[in-house]
Amino acid sequence: MLGCCSAAESYGLPVPQQAGLHVALEPNSSRLRSSTNASRHVPAGAEPGVHLHWRDRRVGHQRFRVGLVDALQQMVLCVGEEWSVAAIDAARMKTPGSEGHLDDAFYRMLVRFCAGASGDIAGLSVRGAESPLESIVRLRLQRMGLEPVIQLPIGKYRADIVIGDRLVIECDGTQHATAEQFVRDRDRDALFAARGYRVLRFTYAQVMQSWDSLVVPAILAALHGSGDLHGSGGFLHGSGRNRDFS
Ligand SMILES: [Zn+2]
Fold it and tell me: Which chain residues have CB less than 5 Å from ligand 1, an ion?
């Protein structure tokens, strides 16, 4: 059955691009059939692009996929901090009762399940995150020693992320901007600037591909330029997705 990222995606949650197929197996499964030749048994893990998970509990399993809590726990163990927290954030933001919604009781269960082996990754989730990119940027800023505030109301809008008193960071996500969105973003930028905020706007590609070379220097320059150095002690300790924070 579908597990991990593949199950999470079926619940409408964000997963890494080209995540491959993540399959959940019964605890005692040790041999699989080839996906290209059903009569051929293959050793576990031998299929390229297929990630295997042996499940050890059942919370809300369905015929073709593991339950939501299990899928998210498998993501914590499989894809690491950023995408698992992005998926958990997104699940908590879904409409109550809708598919893929993680309510507070199940969130606490997930945190309990994840405690130990994976540190407290599930506990890094916050309620209110609006997009996976925002979740990823928030986590990286926290690792830099900064204290990002998400979805801060400024005038009629909510800024994606605010650092200190005067820096807004807007995350543009993966979707192609419509003309309407373009106009609304300019309106947001102008309103934030009028309230005295410096606005930095980053795309998905910039965050994922140019974090250390472009995004971090831009943020640090903006913080230094404004004389706002909250958490500056963290600047010296490096940053970026490859750092091991466990
Ligand atoms: Zn997986």
Answer: 4, 22, 51, 78
DSSP state of 143: H
User: What pLDDT score does 37 carry?
Assistant: 52
Determine the average pLDDT of the residues in 19-28. 87
- Same-domain pairing of 58 and 147: no
CB 169 within 8 A of CB 160: yes
Specify the CATH number for the domain of residue 154. 3.40.960.10
**How many beta carbons lie within 10 A of that of residue 174, not counting itself?**
13
State the distance from the centre of ligand 1 to the C-alpha of 100, rounded, in angstroms: 17
CA-closest candidate to residue 32, choices 62, 49, 7, 52 = 52
Q: Which run of H or E residues covers position 234?
A: none
For 162, the domain range is: 132-237
Which amino acid, residue 7?
Answer: A
